[in-house]
Amino acid sequence: MEPVVSIQGLRKRYGHVDAVAGIDLEVQRGEIFAFLGPNGAGKTTTVEILEGFRTRSEGEVNVLGVDPAKGDAAWRNRVGAVLQESNAEPGLTVRESLQLYSGYYVEPRAIDETIALVGLEEKADTIGTKLSGGQRRRLDVALALIGDPELIFLDEPTTGFDPSARRTAWHVIDGLRELGKTVFLTTHYMDEAEQLADRIAIIAGGRIVAEGTPETLGGRNRMAATIRFTLPEGTGAADLPPELRALLAGEDGRVTLTTDTPLVHVHALTGWAIDRGIDLPDLDVRQPTLEEVYLELTRSEP
Amino acid sequence: MILLWLWRRWRRHRADAAEPDAAPTAFRPTPIREGPSAAARGPLALVVHQARYDLLGVLRNGQSRFFTLILPILFLVIFCSVFGNGKVHHVRLSTTYVPGISALAVIASSFVNLVISITAQRETGVLKRRRATPISAWILIAARTLTALGTSLVVVAVLLAVGRVAYGVKLPTSTIPGVALTAVVGSVTFCVLAYALTTAISNEDAAQPMVQAIMLPLYFISGVFIATSVLPGWLHHVAEVFPVEHLADGLHHAFSPGAHGSGIVWSDIGVLGIWLAIGLAVALRRFSWLPKTASG
Predict the structure, then answer these.
(1) Shortest Cα–Cα distance, B150 to chain A (Å)
(2) I want to staple A227 with a disulfide (CB 3.0 to 4.6 A). Which of A251, A257, B62, B244 is the partner?
(3) Is residue A277 located within the same domain as residue A134?
(4) A156 is in which domain, residue-wise?
């Protein structure tokens, strides 16, 4: 099937600086795709090119089979956009704002159903500008949904939210999956990408530095696991059997071992500890977190 | 200064009434019709659809209500109270106040209010979000112009009614076409000029002072507050370059008891038309839907 979004060699130059320095991407139908990167990495520039708000310097861009720079009303009927910053319609209630926007589309969704989808039933008759930040963002999502688009862009949907408002927003975005929408999300929060996305691309300095599912991103599934524990008073890392001492990565109160075969080495460790009658109450074995992968990837960029 | 003082009084009065979060029960639109959407019913239906909600936005904004609907009527009352309503050459003074203040009302609705609201909507991303939908630019502009035209004409009609009932203003009869045509052309011209001026304003805080700085001097030299006959000739010539004088002059002429025929002053309409063309050229070339202070 043809991808919903496809980008080849996209470049955007401002003066002598490449804000986007040649990226390739594909987003498939029904996918929730997260474009993850620090501020100023080129996320919004890319999304605004895909939305048709900005021109590009080089490369091929195709959104729903159309070059966004030439997107007409028929194309905009199929695309919804939640912009990074946009106030509510001045003076209009939630329901009125949706009535206004539903008039823009040839076949809009039902208004009350859309309000329920973003959980604003109790605020339907409240003036949009008087909503809280989180509620206003959900109104933005409702406005982007009212035309029943195939593809929705969400540009940093939860920036500046408190944790509970973020949870609610995530719940709403997750609900788009059930509607079969394709979602292109930008964010600078690792946990947001990990929570929502089927696939993640990390952008830093205008380049894509890693791409994959939350589980495999940056070779995370193949990266060495760490085993950490604290030894009791009077016992040191030097007392460990030689095969474990060889894995020693650090000892600062807690001992850290890194290994590609955690099962074997945990077995060796626990056998050794039981023989000596030592307990290891804070024993912890884990894969690197997405955050560690992300920080590593975005730090290595110049 | 007077404006600011009045505005603050009004604000305080409003604050006492403690605005609730919910929409005021006044100005509720009639429930939307079931059936095809406005877009499905064609561009004209879409203009009317957009204009209805634009009007709602204007009416629900306290500042817009005060400056566009209430202030012109206050001015008429103040003028008649301060300068009296005596007769000069068998014409009541109020008969000369009404056309001047009508010009002010048209400009308040079509220019002042528009520049401020469009700049704010552009800078807060409201216009950008609308542009991300299938609606055409010309429909948004036509609808906003229609809203301004509608409020202009209503305020002019209210000024006429108040003038007639309270101050015995002699209403034009045969010159009604002159009043109507001048008001309509003036309103459309100032709407287009508003779109043109927003291209020179970088943020919403600058909109209000910018508009007042342009309009206050023009009101004084263009026959809005003071008859142009008392101005030195050179100053009147300066005023004649700008559209305010021609809007006010066209209305004054249509109201004057000496007017004959339809009351249309074609030279005034012509100059307004030239300004309309200039405004249109600037707006088409420079108008932007995106915030000027955008980040990212």
Answers:
(1) 18
(2) A257
(3) no
(4) 5-78+150-219
